[in-house]
């Protein structure tokens, strides 16, 4: 499964009631570190898309999801599992370190 870009209107539907864990990548077009992280997020979506739903949400036009997830800076990640927020991370992170973080919550990584 590829990376799916969502908006505030789709946030609840795409993150809640899912059969697999959901990773939400919060980003901004003006954010340099976000651009650096984008390939890692895309690779994770490609490599684990059958077991992990990966969503991309631009922060500026989507303030409701940003507030709901208490995102204070970008890039930011939120991992939902069984409708619960189980992992948060703010700031740029390299793919190996991101996989390490995800591995703590996901047994298939």
Keywords:
4 helices, alpha/beta, 5 strands, 26% strand, 109 residues, 5-stranded mixed β-sheet, globular, Glutaredoxin
Structural summary, described in words:
Helix 2 (32-48) links the parallel strand 2 and strand 3. The chain has 109 residues and is α/β, with parallel strands linked by helices. It has a single domain (4-103), classed as Glutaredoxin, CATH 3.40.30.10. The protein is built from four helices and five strands; from the N terminus they run E-H-E-H-E-H-E-E-H.
By CATH, the superfamily comes out as Glutaredoxin
Which strand-content bin applies to the residues? 25-35%
> What is the 3D shape?
globular
Find the structural class using helix and strand composition.
alpha/beta
Low-confidence stretches: none
**Number of individual domains:** 1
Helical fraction: 25-40%
Distance between the termini: 16 Å
Disulfide bonds: 31-34
Protein name: Thioredoxin-like protein slr1139
GO cellular component, one term: cytoplasm
Domain Thioredoxin: 2-107
Question: Secondary-structure map with pairings?
Answer:
Blueprint (H helix, E strand, L loop, with lengths): L3 E3 L1 H8 L6 E6 L4 H17 L4 E6 L4 H6 L7 E6 L2 E7 L4 H9 L6
Parallel strand pairs: 1-3, 2-3
Antiparallel strand pairs: 2-4, 4-5
């Amino acid at each position: 499964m590829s990376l799916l870009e969502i908006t505030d209107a789709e946030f609840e539907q795409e993150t809640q009631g899912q059969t697999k864990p959901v990773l939400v990548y919060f980003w901004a077009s003006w954010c340099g570190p976000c651009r650096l992280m984008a390939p890692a997020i895309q690779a994770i979506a490609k490599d684990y898309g059958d077991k992990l739903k990966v969503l991309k949400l631009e922060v500026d036009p989507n303030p409701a999801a940003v507030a709901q997830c208490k995102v204070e800076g970008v890039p930011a990640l939120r991992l939902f599992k069984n409708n619960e927020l189980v992992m948060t991370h703010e700031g740029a992170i390299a793919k190996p370190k991101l996989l390490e973080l995800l591995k703590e919550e996901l047994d298939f990584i």
